[in-house]
Amino acid sequence: MSAETSRHRWPLHYAWIVAGVTFLTLLAAAGARAAPGVMILPLVNEFQWSRATVSSIISVNIFLYGLIGPFAAALYQSLGLRRSMLIAMTLIGTGYGFSILATQYWQFLVLWGAVVGIGSGLAATVLGAAVANRWFAARRGLVMGLLTASTATGQLVFLPLLASVVTTRGWRGAPLIVAVASAVALPVIWWFMRDTPAQVGERAYGETVGTPPPATPNAGRNPARVAVETLIEATRVRDFWLLAGSFFVCGASTNGLIGTHLVSAAFDCGIPEVKSASLLAMMGIFDLFGTTASGWLSDRYNCRYLLFMYYGLRGLSLLFLPSALLGPTGWLMLFGVFYGLDWIATVPPTVRLCAESFGREKASVVFGWVVAAHQLGAAFAAYAAGWLRTTSGAYTLAFLGAGTLCLVAALGVLPIGRTRRLAMASAAA
Predict the structure, then answer these.
(1) By CB neighbour count within 10 A (0-12 exposed, 13-18 middle, 19+ buried), where does 309 fall?
(2) What domains are defined for the chain?
(3) What is the model's pTM?
């Protein structure tokens, strides 16, 4: 298709259509990640498993979701975005679809832990980073914020519905809804998704005439080898460890802890499941605004200071959460507002810092490894919080521990990029 034909057919740059398809895909995948949080108690009741046992299934899912990230980033380069997204939705739909027949622990471990975990990893935040880097030369931070906010939108769309279905019809209705949503996304991806701007005769949005297209040195190479080689190179840079360490804390304090256990923690305090799921959905509304605004801010301000503010505020809100759960309803609403604004606002600044530290060509794969650290933290928190609830009878220690880690992370992000700037100043002198 020529550039002239493309402009005649589409009234806007095709990059925005690709961003819309990616948003829809990530939204459907968000349903897959939201579902376990409302199914912990029904599974405990039906199969007489401890919360630690159910949490172990979710932690495997979260761990694989993160581990696949860097390999997915390399896969996007060798296999293409479109085919990778089709595979992701197929795996999520298959894993959740067959899980309604599961009755044994190992079956849930294979279907929810492995199949859905791998599928979710192929349709994760790293996908948004790859689309933003490949299709946008301008407004990249804003687009990354919008795509990251799809998780919040997914909560808003799925959580109240899933909680209501689980309450009225049993837990099997929830995975069935996610499977249907994944199936709906498949034809949209097939029809509208494209791998590169060149396929529709366009340049990346905001790219000036005469600018050479970004190189794709890993096209056709083994994705696993590309991912491992990039990791080896990245581990020699201090900024990688600071970014990965802070994102470990990010994962531990978001989908590993709050996304997985808040409904159960609220139920322990006498708050019905549907009401607590609605709280998560409300947090998703504020996260939609917070993460989009974070993308806009990351295009204009120092991302280190943004991350310092985000982790600091999140840490304070988590330290406040045990009191909010036992206090007046207004306290819990206050927590939901502040935590929601900050839920995944850390993503756009982290993506930008990866690009600044490692370059546009390697940024997606490096960010994939940073996301792996995020999900390792999430997997740790998902199991540890369930274990603490089983042994101590409450989630208080889990919330206080996560809040403290966030305050440490707020200080840890400040040195990011300083070595690079000092080296540039020395070279200039």
Answers:
(1) middle
(2) 7-199+221-428 (1.20.1250.20)
(3) 0.71
